[in-house]
C-alpha cells in the first residue's frame, strides 16, 4: 500500500487525508503547529456547492453530516447601507446556495477519526525524492513515503523547494477582522446572506455565523468533542496598510476609522470577543507548471487566493478530492503514478490560477483602485 505524506493540517490537507483513507491508502499528516486548537486564520467562511460536494466525497458520512449540521444558512437579502445605516439597496450579489461554516469548528471536525495519522510540531525543513520521498523536519525526525503533498499554505516550505522561482509579495492590502456575539441588535444588521456598509472612505463587510446546531451539543451525540461556540457576526474592514499599527487587536484601529458612524456599528466592533489585523500576500506571478515528480501541491501552497474571492477553501477541497482520486487510480494499477500526478497538476493549475484571478476581480467590489496603481 502506498504511503502519502501530507504537509499541513489545514482544511485542504485534512480533507485529502480523509479522502485517501476512504480510498484505502495510507496517509500521514504533519502539522508545524504544536496543537490542534484555534488558528488566527479567520472565523466564518462560506462554502459553495462544489466545496460541499468535495466534503461529501472526502469525509465519512457522519462527519459530513456533523459539518452540515453545525453550518448556517446564507439565504436572505444582501443589504447595502451607508455609515448611518440608511438602506441603499437590498440586492447585493451573494452566495445564496452556499452555507456558512466556522473555520475552527470545521477544522476540528476534519481532525476527527484521523487519530495518530496526524502529528503536530512537525515543521518541514526539506525533502528528497527519487523512488521514494523523505521529509526532514526541524526536530530532527524524518518520514518516508511514496508521494509528498504540500498543503502547508501560502508560505509553503514544500513550494519553496519545489518551485523556488515563485515568491510571495505584499498585496498592499490589510484587513481588520473581528467576531462579535450575535445579540439581537446585531442580528438586525445581517438578516440575510451578507451586509455591506459603505462609508466615505472605507467599507465594512458583515456576515452572520448562525449555527443550525450548537457545535458541542451536535458533536456529543456522535461521541465527539467540539468547543462550545455561540453564533456571531463576522466583520471585516479593509484598511490602508500604512495606517496599521504593530498590534494584533483590531478594535481600536477600526473604531478610529469609523468615528462618527452609527452607534450599532461602533458597538458591534467594540463588543468583539476576538479581533485581529492581517496583511494579504499574493504570488509574484501565476503558478507555472513544474517538472512532474513524486511531490505536488494543494490549496494555498499552489494558488494563494485573496479572501475577496471567497474561493480559497473551496478550491483546496476540490484539489483534495481530485488528487485522492488520481492517487487511488494509480494505487489500483489503472494509471502510472507520475502520469496521475501530471494530470492532477494540469487540473490544479487551470483551476487554481483561475481562482486567484477571480479573487483579484472580486476585490474591485470592495476597493475601487485605479488600474495604474493596482
> From the helix content, strand content and strand pairing, which structural class follows?
alpha/beta
Total number of helices? 11
The ordered string of helix (H) and strand (E) elements is: EHEEHHEEEEHEEEEEHEHEEHEHHEEHH
Distance between the termini: 49 Å
Which percent range describes the beta-strand content? 25-35%
Q: In which range does the helix fraction lie?
A: 25-40%
**Unreliable runs, pLDDT <50, ≥5 residues?**
368-374
Radius of gyration: 21 Å
- Total count of strands: 18
Major pleated sheet: 7 strands, mixed
Average residue-wise pLDDT: 88
Shape annotation: globular
Main-sheet strand order equals 6-5-14-15-16-13-17
List the helices and strands and how they pair.
Blueprint: E1 3-7, H1 11-22, E2 26-31, E3 44-47, H2 49-58, H3 61-69, E4 72-73, E5 78-82, E6 87-89, E7 99-102, H4 103-111, E8 118-120, E9 124-129, E10 133-137, E11 142-145, E12 147-150, H5 157-162, E13 168-181, H6 184-187, E14 194-198, E15 203-209, H7 215-220, E16 232-239, H8 251-257, H9 263-270, E17 274-283, E18 295-297, H10 312-331, H11 337-363
Parallel strand pairs: 1-2, 1-12, 2-8, 5-14, 12-18
Antiparallel strand pairs: 3-7, 4-7, 5-6, 9-10, 10-11, 13-16, 13-17, 14-15, 15-16
Please characterize this protein's 3D structure:
- With 374 residues, the protein is of the alpha/beta class.
- Helices cover 32% and strands 26% of the residues.
- A seven-stranded mixed β-sheet has the order 6-5-14-15-16-13-17, covered by helices on one side.
- A hairpin with a 3-residue loop joins strand 9 and strand 10.
- The protein is globular and about 65 Å long.
